[in-house]
Amino acid sequence: MRWTRTLVTTLRDDPQEAEIASHKLMVRAGLIRKLSGGLYTFMPLGLRALQKVAQIVREEMNRAGAQEILMPALQPAELWERSGRLAAMGPGMFKLRDRAERLMALGPTHEEVVTELLGGEVSSYRQLPCTVYQIQTKFRDEIRPRFGLMRAKEFIMKDAYSFDTSLEAADASYQAMYDAYTRIFKRCGLDARAVEADTGDIGGKWSHEFMVLADSGEDGVIDCPVCGYAANQERAERKVAEANETCGAVEEIATPNVRTIDDLVAFFACPAERFIKTLVYVADGKPVVALVPGDRDLNEHKFKRLLGAKKLELADDATVQQVTGAPVGFAGPVGLAVPVYADQSLKGAAGRITGANKADTHITNVDLTRDATVAAYEDLVIVGGGDMCPRCGKPLQVKRGIEVGHVFKLGTKYTEAFDAAYLNAEGQRELMVMGCYGIGVTRTLQAVIEQCHDADGIAWPVTVAPFAVTLLLLDPKDAAVCEVVDTLERELQAQGIDVFTDDREERPGVKFKDADLIGCPIRVVVGAKGLAKGGVEIKLRTSKDVAIVPVADAAADIVARIRAMRQD
RNA sequence: CGGAGCGUAGCGCAGCCUGGUAGCGCGUUUGGUUCGGGACCAAAAGGUCGAGGGUUCAAUUCCCUCCGCUCCGACCA
């Protein structure tokens, strides 16, 4: 392909809207253009790279035995009512009405559609197991679209769904997808790892996320360097020792205007972990209280899961006043009429300081077991670096990660809602057991750039590069140079190699800079000077070495280099 | 939605505080000199100063409302 015949406009300056490297580079290299918040056009170079990623996904899905289908993005909302997710998704789902005023939705995911579909198609155990997938545009009315393609309102997802006769069989389907994911991210040149994850709204019991480690990642990843335990920070657990403390009688202390943990630390001259933070929440309309050590934050995901609540939010000031009888800042666990849950690290805690449920007052020498009624001691805090690994007890590390894929074991949550049953060998109806598996294809593309770039631009892995080769035509008016370029292009294309030729009337410096920015793995320079020195110049994007190769050997040399890169 | 900031030419920005209707760099067009790591000279095109309202003789500038965008939190591939 020739640059002068292609819509590729590179930018010298970083776009004002972009914050992270991959987003800046995608805009600067002319891969994407923004239409509006969270909505992007793929330009020719960006689309080529996207299609490379999609093709890798497709090949590995097929290899894992999944069948490609394509479901409608536009779906009747009634389907979502049946699964109960119309409410659960809430404003996160794009909704509209057709001319008959029927409520429709733009699919944010496809569990409902696929379960309805397979429920009708599968009637016998002989048809199982069955895994289907699609690569399709999804719509989510994100509260805050961010970082270009990382969190967009419209994005391309590969979603796969497995249907099995039993939990054991479903485990095998899950493992097949897990393995396929590992291969997909490796082939994309990504350093991705699977971590234990929270299941969120999709539901189900168990899930793994595939994380690309990057400082710009939106998720915290907890990682044990000793035993290999890895989990999303939302789910990560820790090992704690029980407190087993004792103390004297409770004492009231006047603490006018001392509300926050920082205030308390200053007032009592005592470390934050000696305080008990009392948090009032409202779970599905009912107030509940969570206790965590003063130096820790509550993990709302864990609390929500423990309560089995659909909705959990921090109580407003009026509710706090009602529950504790005191203004915000003086809540404590003693004498509350609502259920109280405490972090496991507070089991046996005594001699602690907490709110007195009375304005401008705290109490000391609190023994939780003696003075309060705690419904349960459970793991409730956000695990951080330095906490102990739940498996081996060694210190954990925190890293940042980009979630590029997620695999779930769903069980029968959806097959039950849609009565998706089959007849087993004994002729009895049984619900199919499901799994679902997503890859953010557009996000994966950006993650590749986030991981593969330097100060000069993108450094594509050969497997997803929009072109394997950029050919710089340095002297477009020199007939000999043009002929070499024509021949090389032909020879490489005959071998199935994508070549992007910079045939613009630009000075060499401009072409070098743009070639680095766009970042194709191999750069070939054809110019009068080079030819005089004996041939064309071949350089890898990731190396400084330049090889001068005779024109006659150039094509073979390039092909060999690409093969070598594909091997890695 | 809560908090912070921004909106001036295709892109990146200045001007606004202290009103007198716009300027710089990049890019684009034309001509010339250049030509191996983002050249130089000359000329030119390109702007409802986000939208609406208010104050004023006069608003890009001051005030109000709305819209859009970006960043920090809850959602997620």
Question: Could you describe the 3D structure shown?
Answer:
The protein is α+β, with helices and mostly antiparallel strands and 568 residues long. It has three domains: 3-236 and 398-449, BirA Bifunctional Protein, domain 2 (2-Layer Sandwich); 251-378, Alpha-Beta Complex (YbaK protein), CATH 3.90.960.10; 467-567, Anticodon-binding domain (Rossmann fold, 3-Layer(aba) Sandwich), CATH 3.40.50.800. Helix content is 29%, strand content 28%. Strands 3, 7, 8, 9, 10, 11, 12, 21 and 24 form a nine-stranded mixed sheet that branches. Helix 2 (44-63) packs antiparallel against helix 6 (167-187), helix 2 crosses helix 12 and helix 13 runs parallel beside helix 16 (551-567). The two termini are 27 Å apart. The protein binds one RNA strand of 77 nucleotides through strand 8, strand 21, strand 24, helix 12 and helix 14.
Provide the descriptors you would attach to this structure in a database record:
globular, YbaK protein, 31 strands, RNA-binding, single chain, BirA Bifunctional Protein, domain 2, 568 residues, 3 domains, alpha+beta
Summarize the topology.
Layout: H1 21-28, E1 32-36, E2 39-42, H2 44-63, E3 67-68, E4 74-76, H3 77-83, H4 85-89, E5 94-97, E6 103-106, H5 111-121, E7 130-139, E8 154-164, H6 167-187, E9 192-196, E10 206-213, E11 219-223, E12 230-232, E13 251-254, H7 261-268, E14 276-283, E15 286-293, H8 300-307, E16 312-314, H9 317-324, E17 340-343, E18 352-355, E19 361-366, H10 368-371, E20 376-378, E21 397-411, H11 413-417, E22 421-423, E23 429-431, E24 433-440, H12 441-451, E25 453-454, E26 457-458, E27 469-473, H13 479-494, E28 499-502, H14 508-518, E29 522-526, H15 528-533, E30 536-540, E31 546-549, H16 551-567
Parallel strand pairs: 3-7, 15-17, 17-20, 27-28, 27-29
Antiparallel strand pairs: 1-2, 4-6, 5-6, 7-8, 8-24, 9-10, 10-21, 11-12, 11-21, 13-19, 14-15, 14-16, 18-19, 21-24, 22-23, 25-26, 29-30, 30-31
The structure holds one RNA strand of 77 nucleotides.
